[in-house]
Structure formats: structure tokens, C-alpha cells
Design a protein that fits this description.
This protein is α/β, with parallel strands linked by helices and 401 residues long. It is 38% helix and 12% strand. A hairpin with a 6-residue loop joins strand 10 and strand 11 (324-326). Helix 3 packs across helix 11 (378-398) and helix 4 packs across helix 5 (193-225).
């Protein structure tokens, strides 16, 4: 579903990165464990990049910057090549009480919730208690975050205001594509007709809510909102088995994701390879890394959640505290701005589930208005942590510290 990449869009980055910076970005952030080597060749003066996965594909040649040393003189991408701004490119602060004045922020409440929650697999219920639906809960948190950020001067827009999908397409639009995909991959081999039809429907559903919906949000962010920072808000969960008889776990945690850690099979996709290089060359990390560190510090201070640690190869630790990770997700890859992807709490945790029930009951009883402020409310706690992290990053960065 991705459009073919326009490799000429990288021309603006010719001569803007040294060889050392380029290799450092690949090896320690975007494509560790040599994942990039089947697709990119590097010599002293340039990188030669395959524009298609075939070995005889045309080569895109990226010239390195020279004359300032291999790892010194780091610069960011030309301003005309991006819509997002560095804090130092924003107007000077006039009111200390408004440290986010002029900052454009998009909030992406993860998933959909509402009538789509069961389809998404983001729903479970214990007895007759209030169902846990991630999409609805992050929408509550997102509205709280928007209100508080606006009080600090930011210009904030939610990517979705309700549980209505951003995309106009629905699963029926993807039935043929789902069938062709399953057929090509052999995932329908040996399946009886009725079971095959169910599998095709499930695949079409995934194309709707995992792919078409995210791409529609990306179009809104990249073409209309054009923010300086995107906050993707989620709740984490462990496997809960039967959603009508969920398994609660005795742990909870937090981690924050920045785009990176592409694996070789992902880089074999032309669009993913192009998007990785675009993020590396645009130096989006000059915002993401310090903003991510500020976000982690604020969340840790506010919630005291321990870090989550990945055990596989699909994530790469950024630092040694365990909270900040590079991982390649569709949203943090195709949103053409700095993206902070939050994953706090565990929805089916014995520690967090009771607090979620209490918070949901408060908001249900007060609806359609918000309930009175309560510092113990888990949603408010989450929102305070997000806002404090954004505030601390921009307050420090705009003062040059």
C-alpha cells in the first residue's frame, strides 16, 4: 500500500552528512547488526544505495560532507527540506509562563476504540466490569494533554477526536488485496474454503486498521498539521488470552520508542529503506533523542514505573536505563516529523487494572463532562507526565541549555 519512493527527494541532503555520522547512525540507531549492508555500500566519499531490492537495481549515490572531520561539525537538514522546526528556529520566548508558545504539536491517540476495539484486539472485560479498550482510554489522556499543552502556549491538534477512523476506507475495500497477499505467501495452502474466507477477512481487517488508518493519519500529519513534534499515546499490555477471561499479570512497566532498528527483511522493502534514510539524513534524531530523554525522565518521576526490556532483535536500546528504545513501526516511520511513541502501564496488570477501572468509572459517571481533577487518577497521571516531558525539553532547548 506504500507509494514507490522518489529517491530524488534525498538530493537536498547531498553533502550534508559525513561518512562517520552516516555509519554511526546506521550502526547505532537505524540498522544495527549490519542489517544495512546488503543494500548500502559505503566508501570514503559516498554511499551507494540500491533503489530497489533486486541486485541489478539502479544505484542512488549519496555524497558525504568533507572538510570538517569525520564526526565533527554535525548539522541538521536544510530548513526547506522539512516542515518541523528545531527549538532554536522558533521565535524567542516572550512569556516565561508560556514555554511552549508557538510550538506545533500533533497528538495521535493510538488505535480506534469504540465499536472497533474488538476488531483491533484492544479489548478485554472481566465479569461485568467496564471493558478495557485502549483506543478510548488514550483519547481521554490525549484530551487532557492537549488542554495542558495549550495552557503552556502550544498549538495542539488531535489526529482523531472520536473513535471514527481517519481513513474513509473500510475492510471491504481490502478483501481482494488480502486474498492476493495470502495467496502469494502460501498462507491459504491447505485451508478449507470456510476457514480461508475467515482468514481473508481477518487480513482485510488488519489492512484497514493497521495500515490504511495509519497512512491516513500520516497524510493528515504531513500535509495539513505539519507539527514540530508528534506524540503517539498508547497503553501497553501483556498477552491476556481469551478477552472474556483475561489473564492478569503481576508486573507493569514503561518504555518509549523512537524510530529505528530496521531489520534486514524490512530494509528489503524499497519504501522502508527510503524512509529510514530520509529520517537519518533529515536528522530528526536531533529532536527525538533529547525530547525522548526528557519524556522518560518525566514519566519515571511521575509514575515510578520500571523499564520494559526487549529480548528479541526488533528493538535497540538507546542508552542503558532501559526506557528508551529504537524500533521500526509504521507510525513512527512515515510521520515526517520527530515522533515520541509512548507505551506506559500494562492494561492487564494486577497493579494497573484496578486503577484503570477506578478512572473509567469516574469518567463514565461525569460524562459528557470531565470529572473533577484527582491527582490519583491514572489518566491524569499519564497526561501530567507527558506534558512535563514536553515542557522540560522545549524550556531547556529554547534557552540554549
Amino acid at each position: 500500500m506504500a507509494p514507490p519512493p522518489d529517491w530524488s527527494a534525498l538530493d537536498v541532503y547531498q553533502g550534508t552528512i559525513t561518512r562517520g555520522e552516516f555509519l554511526d547512525g546506521l550502526n547505532h540507531w537505524y540498522a544495527p547488526r549490519d542489517a544495512w549492508k546488503p543494500f548500502i555500500e559505503v566508501d570514503a566519499t559516498e554511499a551507494r544505495i540500491r533503489t530497489r531490492s533486486e541486485k541489478d537495481a539502479p544505484i542512488y549515490q549519496l555524497q558525504f560532507r568533507t572538510g570538517q572531520g569525520e564526526t565533527k561539525g554535525r548539522t541538521v537538514s536544510p530548513k526547506e527540506s522539512r516542515f518541523w522546526r528545531l527549538p532554536t528556529e522558533m521565535p524567542p520566548l516572550e512569556d516565561p509562563a508560556k514555554p511552549l508558545a508557538g510550538v506545533r504539536i500533533a497528538i495521535d491517540p493510538g488505535h480506534l476504540g469504540g465499536p472497533w476495539a474488538k476488531m483491533e484486539g484492544r479489548w478485554f472485560q472481566i465479569g461485568d466490569e467496564i471493558p478495557i479498550t485502549e483506543g478510548d482510554m488514550v483519547l481521554i489522556v490525549s484530551r487532557l494533554v492537549r488542554e495542558q499543552l495549550e495552557q503552556l502556549g502550544a498549538e495542539v491538534q488531535l489526529v482523531r477526536e472520536t473513535t471514527r477512523p481517519v481513513t474513509r476506507l473500510r475492510r471491504i475495500a481490502f478483501l481482494n488485496e488480502a486474498y492476493q497477499s495470502l495467496l502469494r505467501s502460501g498462507r491459504l495452502d491447505g485451508w478449507p474454503p470456510a476457514a480461508a474466507q475467515r482468514r481473508i477477512l481477518k487480513e482485510a481487517e488488519k489492512l484497514f486498521y493497521r495500515t490504511a488508518e495509519i497512512r491516513a493519519r500520516a497524510e493528515l500529519i504531513n500535509e495539513t498539521i505539519q507539527p514540530d513534534l508528534v506524540l503517539c499515546l498508547h497503553f501497553n499490555a501483556d498477552a491476556w488470552g481469551n478477552p472474556n477471561q483475561p489473564q492478569l499479570v503481576d508486573r507493569h512497566h514503561f518504555h518509549l520508542l523512537l524510530n529505528g532498528c530496521y531489520e534486514a527483511y524490512e530494509l528489503a522493502l524499497d519504501d522502508a529503506r527510503f524512509q529510514m534514510l530520509h529520517r537519518l539524513l533529515s536528522r530528526v534524531s536531533t529532536v527525538e533523542l533529547p525530547a525522548g530523554k526528557a519524556a522518560v525522565t518525566a514519566m519515571k518521576r511521575e509514575t515510578d514505573l520500571p523499564p520494559y526490556r526487549y529480548g528479541g532483535t526488533n528493538a535497540w536500546a538507546l542508552g542503558d536505563q532501559g526506557y528508551l528504545w529504537a524500533r521500526n513501526l509504521l507510525a513512527n516511520r512515515i510521520y515526517a516529523a520527530p515522533v515520541l511513541f509512548y507505551e506506559p502501564f500494562v492494561m492487564n496488570s494486577q497493579l494497573d487494572y484496578p486503577r484503570l477501572q477506578t478512572a473509567l468509572q469516574r469518567w463514565k459517571e461525569a460524562a459528557p463532562d470531565p470529572p473533577p481533577a484527582d491527582s490519583n487518577d491514572l489518566f491524569e497521571e499519564y497526561a501530567r507526565a507527558v506534558v512535563e516531558g514536553v515542557k522540560q525539553y522545549y524550556a531547556a532547548a529554547r534557552q540554549g541549555s
